[in-house]
Amino acid sequence: MSLKIYIGLIVTVIIVLILVYLNVEHKVEGWDKNVDRNVSHYLSHISTQIVPTRFCNEPLLTLMIVTSAPSNKNERQTIRETWGNKENIKKYNGSVTFFIGKSLDPEIQKAILGESEKYDDIIQEDFVDSYYNLTLKSTLIMRLVSSRCLGSAQYLLKIDDDMFLNVPNLFEMIVTKNKSENFLIGLLECNARPIKDPFSKWYSPNYLFNETVFPNFVSGISYLMSMDTTRKLYEAALTTPLFHLEDVYLTGICARKAGIHPEHSSQFIRSAPDDEPCQFKNYIAIHDMTPSRMRNTFYSLSDSSLMGECSNYKEMFNVRQWMWNTLLIPYSRSKRKRLCN
């Protein structure tokens, strides 16, 4: 047998093995075929362990719930001292509360109790906080808000603890949109297909979702909704099998069942722009922010001289802005419209 034929056979065998591997339906960690996916069964065994003393006890425009991991004390403290500080939030009739599950580490759990006593801004539910429980975590938020806050808050913002929130821009969107029913907005994903690569973090086997395309959904990094939407999503979840991708499940599958049509906002972005404050001024929620970067951004945006600096910035980069506004944005909007129709 010649060397070329031998190499060809080896390559063929490798390709066949890869194809066979990819076509085998691998399980998702924590979500194999035998796992109970009835959300009611989980919720009936989960109780709220910690809740702020004045949670939803007074009228609010926006209830901001930050999803955080038990060990992320630094992230929570950074938010308290930057965009989530009480003076900043109070100006816009809002409140910030951190939502976490329990930690299996007794030292972390002890620290959470101390943190809660000091700041009185933590909600802790009795479930193990992990990546594979994110769907359960967000559903628990809907349950709590639906049961305690429908008569006090007008909007719910769910946001991760690695997000920078431009509170004035959020307030401006709420006032401009002025939607009090069936409202759900964020970074919209349209006609996304389930990923079949078992090595992917977002792998989706057929036994969990057997359609070829996901319903349109908004990214779980952050989304804003009217209070009636929280109730409708929660009620839909009670009769919808759990799915491990939190945003697809709640804002896609459950939203479709509830008759909620999520909207897109380009002010919710997945990755932070360059460290230029004038760029940050235009967004509402910015993902992938470290605590140090979050602090720098907040202090820059709080600088009263920023407006003048941004005017200079606009003059310096008018060519780049012209290209963006004239060429890229219309193409992006046109492409999104085609995808979302």
Structure description:
Its EC number is 2.4.1.-. Belongs to the glycosyltransferase 31 family. GO terms for molecular function: hexosyltransferase activity. By secondary structure, the protein is an alpha/beta fold. It has helices spanning 3-23, 39-43, 73-81, 86-90, 106-119, 134-148, 167-177, 227-237, 246-258, 277-280, 291-301, 306-316, 318-340; strands at 48-50, 60-67, 94-102, 122-128, 153-160, 164-165, 184-189, 217-226, 263-264, 268-269, 285-286. Strand 10, helix 10 (277-280) and strand 11 form a beta-alpha-beta unit. Helix 3 (73-81) runs parallel beside helix 11. The model is unreliable at 317-322 (pLDDT under 50).
Order of helices and strands: HHEEHHEHEHEEHEEHHEEHEHHH
* Beta fraction: 15-25%
Helical fraction equals 40-55%
CATH architecture of the domain at 39-264: Alpha-Beta Complex
- Please outline the major beta sheet: 8 strands, mixed
Tell me, what is the CATH class of the domain at 39-264? Answer: Alpha Beta
Query: Structural class per helix/strand content?
Result: alpha/beta
Report the radius of gyration as a whole number of Å: 22 Å
* N-C termini distance: 56 Å
Mean pLDDT: 87
The shape is globular
Tally of DSSP β-strands = 11
Extract low-pLDDT stretches.
317-322
Strands side by side in the biggest sheet: 1-4-3-2-5-8-7-9
Tally the helices: what do you get?
13
CATH topology descriptor of the domain at 39-264: Spore Coat Polysaccharide Biosynthesis Protein SpsA, Chain A
Family: Belongs to the glycosyltransferase 31 family.
Transmembrane segments: 6-24
GO molecular function: hexosyltransferase activity
InterPro entries: Glyco_trans_31
